[in-house]
Amino acid sequence: MDRREAISRVTLLLGGALTTSGLGAFADVLHTEGSGSIPLQSLAASEALIAEIANTFIPDNKGVPGAKAAGLGPFIVMMMQDCYTPDIQKHFREGLSKVEEVSKSRFQKSFTQLSLKQREEIFGVFKAEAETPRKTEIAPSHFFQLMADLTYLGYYTSEIGATKALRYVHIPGKYEACVPLAPGQKAWAT
Given 3-state DSSP classes, what are the helix, strand and coil percentages for the chain, each rounded to the nearest 5? Predict the structure, then answer.
């Protein structure tokens, strides 16, 4: 058994909290020969745009910092670089270009310069597009869905997401399967 096969078997045994869209990309990474991934600089150049898109998904709200404060720009760039195949990275970059293209055609401004209301209007376009049935099941997830998956993963596993957006107990007590929440109470991170 070679190293690649051992890693594949351990990964299958351990399982994990991978999204449906990420599972296929992760499996492809394990079986891809060579490192033909897109250089980090090309995605890093779009880090500000990525952070603003993530912050539109999870903006600052009632004293709880949003996605940008949680450092999701660098996180998403790192995840794309380290965990996704070159094809998905290319698909992601094309999605970023399309966001800018739609933004400039509708509002004559870059996405990063738009108000939250204008950004949400652009999100409506992408959400409708993402919800249309795909021609084949093999096609990669829509850019919008991929971006949402990475945003929620990064935010709710960050310190800010786990301690400010969710209720966090460093050392939880006994397991209680069903605990009623009071109106407005945060969900538990632990």
Answer: 60, 0, 40
pTM of the full predicted structure?
A: 0.68
- Tallying the residues shown for the chain, one arrives at 190
Instruction: Quickly list DSSP for 50-64.
Output: HHHHHHHHS--BTTB
Do the beta carbons of residue 68 and residue 55 sit within 8 Å? yes
Q: What is the 3-state secondary structure (H, E, C) of 131-147?
A: HCCCCCCCCCCCHHHHH
∠ CA(133), CA(31), CA(97), 5° rounding?
A: 45
Tokens of 23: 């599972």
Nearest to 69 by CA among 161, 140, 6: 161
In the three-class reduction of DSSP (H, G, I as helix; E, B as strand; rest coil), residue 167 is classed as strand
Q: Are 76 and 155 in contact (CB under 8 A)?
A: no
pLDDT per 10-residue tile (average), the chain, 190 residues: 63 51 49 44 79 92 90 92 90 91 93 92 88 70 89 92 82 77 81
